[in-house]
Amino acid sequence: MLLAADTRPAGGAAIGEVILASAIGLGLTAVLLGLVFLHRTRRSQLLTRVGTRLGKATGVPPWVALPTVLTTLSLLVALLGMLWDISLHIGVGRDEGPLANPAHYLILFGLFGVFAGGIFACAMPLDEKPGPAAIHFIRGWDVPVGGVLLTGAGFYALLGFPLDDVWHRLFGQDVTLWGPTHLMLITGAGLSIIGLLILEQEGHGGLSTDDGDRKVGSITRFVRQASAMGGLLLGLSVFQGEYDFDVPQFRLVLEPFMIAAAAGMALVAARLFIGRGGALAATAFFLVIRGGIALIVGPGFGEIVPMFPLYLGSAIVVEALALVLPLARRPLVFGAVAGVAIGTVGHATEWGWTHLTQTLSWGSDILVEGTLMAIAGGVAGGLLGSLLATGLRRRLPRPAVARTVLLGALVVLTACVTNGLLATVPDDVEATLGIEDVQDDPRTANITVQLEPADALDDPSWVQITSWQGQGLVVDALERTGEGQYRTTRPIPIHDDWKALLRIHDGRMLSAVPIYLPADEAIPAEAMTADDGVTRAAIPEIEILQRELKSSGGGLWLLANLVVLACTLALIAAISWGVARYSRRAAVREPFPDAPADEPDTTRADSGLGAR
């Protein structure tokens, strides 16, 4: 293991691995384009036959059935790979190379499958207009809106894979889930579900299955739609991954915010789109999949177990509110009210859940700010969920209203994320460490901490020691023994590749004190030994947790982040356009049934969040 640690690059991968990975990608692309060429020239009926067989059970055309099954399976494979990859990085640290990490294969093939599903959805329709909002591509070739969105989201996610290596070459290893290229993978994969939802609606000719108050149609379709909304909840929940593993590198208030935002969007959309039981069914799908992955990654692969939010309390309050609020007449009002309930009642259930599943559970330090952040996230997510559901049901509000709600929700989400990222580091806090060896080889120790000044902390979210990347993870919430005095509750590994640090989070203060860090010639960095009685100053956590990062002058790092942000906003804009295009154009051909007589007619406008 020590030899392997010496060969782990701190920047990009070895050229040989880059060439091999590129060859794999080009080979897959060649196969994909070959299948498309043979299908479009009618030299092969393979895609049609497979799609027809898959579509018999669901009643959708081949160009919906095959991409839906392929994308669904691919997303599950990618999700397993991503959570496995996070667990490996927490337990082991850097890779010897991208192809030396088995989880990367699952991510790569999964994301390519999502992209391939979009390509097939666009390529398979022959001599027909695929859906009421189809886009004219070239003469004799129309493509479904859902296929275009699926292709774009899949390509964006897939692009993050090679760009991740470029990023590491420029800036080193940012060992965090929230690295810009990592966010590309997560965002593209998660939002591809919206393309799938639209694609299925197009495949049914725009016919709706629900009037917002009761479920109609087959059980099979209900399960399929609930699975899709549960998949959206899965995708939105990956952003919380660091908190699920008890290694968050950001303020704790971000966790309740992200959980409420994900619940607001996915569960409100599920209830409005599917009907009664939709939110509960989507949550059940989420819990089954994430529970299964936890068992595979943990007991199955022998890695760190990824925990997950519960969402059950939020689903119950959404279903309860739907019984008393007029969904069809005021979906935006329902989304906002449900968001408040998610940010309060749902937030309270998640509060209790963290005390059962997380070492770094929610405490009184974030009681006020965390609740406010959860309410803001729940309302913004609920409004976005109502827009998505009404778009799928071809009942979007007027374009001006839809755009205002969309932009307002995005502004709120951005403001909350920014608030969660703002942290301070004190310039006068020091920690004196007492090291009492428990075992010599490998070395473990009980550790005491004396903070100076002793009253530096008020009501901290955590005072804990994290030891990681030494073939495991230890997160120990310290026991307070006096004013400014703390001690461990179990021995901490401080040997070989382990990195041990004292972490302090109180309000906006987020800082750390190094305890033991091994030498790392690839960075390079000297060793920092764990000595009894040593006093060290508190410094920004990122300097220890992401010690492989390189400093970049000239604003290159800022420019690269802005480029990724611009691409992400472009993807969100494209999805908004696609939802609006489907909603407006499908509504003209097939108005939504049972619309209240006094409800404003929103089906005539052929524009929306950019519908044209």
Question: What attributes characterize this protein structure?
Answer:
55% helix, 612 residues, globular, 13 strands, 3 domains, disordered C terminus, 5-stranded antiparallel β-sheet, 17 helices, 6-stranded antiparallel β-sheet, Immunoglobulin-like, single chain, alpha+beta
Could you characterize the architecture of this molecule?
By secondary structure, the chain is α+β, with helices and mostly antiparallel strands. It folds into three domains: 1-207, no CATH class; 215-425; 430-537, Immunoglobulin-like (Sandwich). The protein has helices at residues 2-6, 15-40, 46-56, 62-92, 102-123, 145-171, 180-203, 219-237, 241-244, 254-274, 278-300, 312-322, 331-357, 367-392, 399-421, 542-545, 556-589, and strands spanning 135-138, 141-143, 430-440, 443-452, 462-468, 473-477, 479-482, 485-487, 492-493, 499-506, 509-516, 535-537, 539-540. A hairpin with a 2-residue loop joins strand 3 (430-440) and strand 4 (443-452). The protein starts with a helix and ends in a 23-residue tail after the last helix. Mean pLDDT is 89; it is low at 1-6, 206-217 and 591-612.
